[in-house]
Amino acid sequence: MMTFSDPLSAVQAALKPFFEQQTRENAAKDEKIRDLTRQLEGQKADLVATRAVFDRQLKEKDATGKDLARQITELKEEHARSEASKRALVAEIDDLKNQILELTNEKQGLEEKIDGMSDQSQEITRLRTKNKALSKKMEQVMKIFSSSASVEASDGSSNSDSSGQEEGESVSGNRPAKRHRAITVEDKRLQKAEETVRKHPNDPKAHFALGFNHFRLKNYDAALEAFAQAENRKFDDWQLYYYQALSHSELRDFGSAFQAIETAIEMAPSESQGNVLHVKATILRDSGDKAAAKALLTEIKGHGVNTEKLEASLR
After folding, report:
1. Fewest CB atoms less than 10 Å from the CB: which of 164, 165, 273, 292?
2. What is the pTM of this model?
3. Is residue 192 in some structural domain?
4. Closest among 186, 181, 260 to 224, alpha carbons compared
5. pLDDT of 238-286, one tens digit each?
6. Phi and psi (nearest 5°) for 163?
7. CA gap 160, 137 in Å, rounded
């Protein structure tokens, strides 16, 4: 028995330092693991805190993004309202322009009537003056023939001759001078437009106004020349081409009229499209293409423009 235990004890004694070494190493490893665990726990806590900060910042940014999105939506709505107001204002301005043109035409007619009445008043005043002179002459002649004495008759005859000469001079003095064509309001406007062009030769609006006044007086060649000067000076308005088309059409230059009216159609706002298309239809009609003119009627009516006279002319 002693013989067996001695080798075992010897082995245990030999392995004891190894086990003790392993135990110390394991203890060291456990301690290291605990240190690493503590470090990981600390890092984990830091990460959790950082994540909480990030979550808070993300929520704040999300709230900011939603607020910006709401502001963008409000700005878009405001822009849409502004555009609608702008379109309504453009329509109102075009309507006012049309009203101004109508009132201008009406005013011109009234002024022409007033000028005519003024001419009539002057004529009436002249006739009344002449009538008074003739009445006076008749009274003098009656006095002459009512005289019974020959001497008085002779004197009356002399007086009659003298009186006749005087009356002749008086009638001649009241004879109206040769009448010339009265200067109309349109003539005065044309003169004013010409004066404006002389003062401001580089103003495109001045040249357009000159052309418009020539157009109203049916001076279509002069109107087109003034419109060309306005166009050369970069007058960029659909009405320029609108009146160019009308002037070319009046001169039976339908090719140029078509070119101008197509440009007017491209530039005119939607509120004025009906009037521009109406002019195009009349140009087509006058050029002999009634079928094409009829094809535009539906579109013209869609813009609220009356086409009764145009339709009647296309039958």
Report:
1. 165
2. 0.45
3. yes
4. 260
5. 999 999 999 999 999 999 999 999 999 999 999 999 999 999 999 999 9
6. -65, -40
7. 9
